[in-house]
Structures are given as C-alpha cells and as structure tokens.
Fold:
Amino acid sequence: MSKTKGYAALTAKAPLAPYSFERREPRDHDVAIDIKFCGICHSDIHQARNEWGEVPGHEIAGVVTAVGGKVTRYKVGDKVGVGCFVDSCRTCAECKNGLEQYCSVHTAWTYNGREIDETPTYGGYSEKIVVDENYVLRIPENLPLDKAAPLLCAGITLYSPLKHWNAGPGKKVAIIGLGGLGHMGVKLAHALGAEVTVLSHSLKKKDDGKRLGADRFYATSDPETFTQLAGYFDLIINTVSAEIDWNQYFALLKLDSAMVLVGVPEKKIPVGAMPLVARRRSLAGSSIGGIKETQEMLDFCGKHGITSDIEVIPIQKVNEAYERVQKSDVRYRFVIDMASLKAQS
Ligand code: NAP
Ligand code: ZN
Ligand code: ZN
Structure:
C-alpha cells in the first residue's frame, strides 16, 4: 500500500480538508498515475458529502509513473486521464458494447464508490491514483494537461449525446446553460459542424459564447426568446441542474427532435404530454460516455485543438472555488494544480 495525500470532507457538509489514505500497489494490469491536475465538476459539489473521508474528483489528468507486469497500453511518462469510473463488470451487454457507464452489474465510480473487490474508491483531489489500464485514457500530446482535465467529464458528457443524436452539418443544436458542461458543448457541437445556439439565463456571457463557437446567443429570462425560436431546434441539451420549465423548451423543438438532460435537478419536474406527442419530440437523458467513446472524444479534441477554458487554483482554495461554482461565478471550469498539494506538509 502507498500512503497518499488528498482533500476530503471529514464530516457531512464540512469544507474539504487535508486527508491521507492508502492506494494499492499496481497489480499486473494497473497503471500508477502522478496526478498533475483535476477539474472541479458541479457533481463533486452535489454529492451528499456525508461519507467520512470522501475524496472527490473525476476529471483527472497526469503522467504514468509505473505499470504492472502485464500492461500493454501505457508506459512510464505517458500523458493520461481518468474520468468518472475506474472499472465495471466487463461481462454485461452494456460493458461488452463499450457502454461501461451504464453497466447493469457494477460500475466502480472513481470516488465515493467501490472497486469490483468492494474496496472504497478515492478520487482525483489527490496526488496519485492506481487504475486498471483498460479504464485509463490517453491524452493527445498537443493538449496541455490542465486544460485537458475537464474533457474527462464535462467533455465526454456533451460529446456522447451530440454524437448519439447526430449533431453535425445542417443540424440546429441548442445548449442550455453556459457552465463547465455547456461551454464544452458549444465547442464540440461547433467542431462537429452543427449550428450552435446558447440559451443562457442572461446575456452576460454573450461575447464568451460567440468566442467559444456559438452562432446565436439568447437570454432565457426574456420571454421573446421563446417566441422567436419556436419550432427551431433539432436537438437541445440541458446542462442546468436548477429547476426550469422544460415544457417551455419543448416548444422550441421541431418535428422528430429531442431534448436531452445531462444536468440533474433534485426535484421532479412535471412534463406535459401534448408538446411531446404533437411533434413526435423525445425527452431523453444521457450519462457521461464509455471508455471507447471517451478516447474518441479526446482524439477528436486533439485533432481540433479543443480544450476547456479554465481557472487554475491551488488545492488550498478548493472550498472558495466550490462557493463560486454554486454562484455561477466560473469561466468555465476550475482546475486544481496538484503541485500545491504535493508542496503542502
Ligand atoms: P456549472 O459549471 O455550475 O454550470 C451550470 C450552468 O447552469 C451555469 O453556468 C448557468 O449557466 C446555469 N445555471 C445555474 N444556475 C441557474 C439557475 N438558477 N437557473 C438557470 N440556469 C442556471 O455546472 P456543470 O459542472 O456544467 O454541471 C451541470 C450539471 O450537470 C450538474 O447538475 C452536474 O451534476 C451535471 N452533470 C451531469 C453529468 C452526466 O453525465 N449527465 C456529468 C457531469 C455533470 P448560464 O449562466 O448560462 O445560465
Ligand atoms: Zn463530472
Ligand atoms: Zn457491466
């Protein structure tokens, strides 16, 4: 076992604080990774934080420091990433189809979860991690690790539904919410060739939206937006976890179109049947992406030079960053520089 420094919630709802725990020694198929950067996802903040010693973080970017005897995919010095899960059953239909995030038996989430052998998992707000090579991603050489880290969750969470619902040339795509997920959605949909519209609650981020690749930008606080855009979109991806009136957004969809939820509101939201029935519209959800698709997304980002817009912070400022994310005061992802943790005595 190897002693590892990290940051964890030590009691329910408490601020994150220094915490030390053990990582396993690399097994035959394991890769040991020195974590350089870890993104702060809004999901890290949603987590109940009521388990003692939960180390969050699932947007991990680092460098391989050791490999097990049977590892074939990676070598020491490789630039790699780890996303939302570190293992899965590998035998169910979903796993066999590269949809490990929907594993019907056991997905081993990167933190606040259990490995297949039931040992607890600890996330990326830490100095190092040990992961089976089949669940490690390769980060393209031309992408800097700090700006690439958010691709491991925010990037794939938007790439997967964009691909599944065929965003591309001739398609009109709207992204609700220009936050960590939303800004990646704008970049990716634009690079895929779709016409991209941002639906933000105000016009404050309009210049940013255009710079990121949006063709159009509307404020959802303005009722005119819903009149002007009625029946316009092929696909709407909703990244907002705050409560909004989904029915109002269905009216913006054309025939045979879809609204896909990736943001997860806490409360149930009433959905009217008629807006769906009348225009054969679908309401769907989507969760991150499988290993094969995540690698495809990283390679796509490498080819198109796509990374996240980030604000790098030392780990000592993580609680401040959490408060700022909750106030929507982030442009567009906080990323922790793990050198600040290693330097801390
Ligand atoms: P984020 O950076 O905080 O962005 C959320 C955006 O929602 C904000 O930038 C803001 O955009 C909008 N928003 C915030 N408060 C609002 C309000 N009261 N009313 C309307 N809009 C509001 O969060 P994130 O990291 O992108 O995550 C977004 C959600 O996705 C979270 O619920 C997270 O847990 C979930 N998530 C899901 C998956 C998945 O696999 N499905 C993966 C990762 C995260 P504007 O200022 O532009 O309105
Ligand atoms: Zn996430
Ligand atoms: Zn499975």
Observations:
- The radius of gyration is 20 Å.
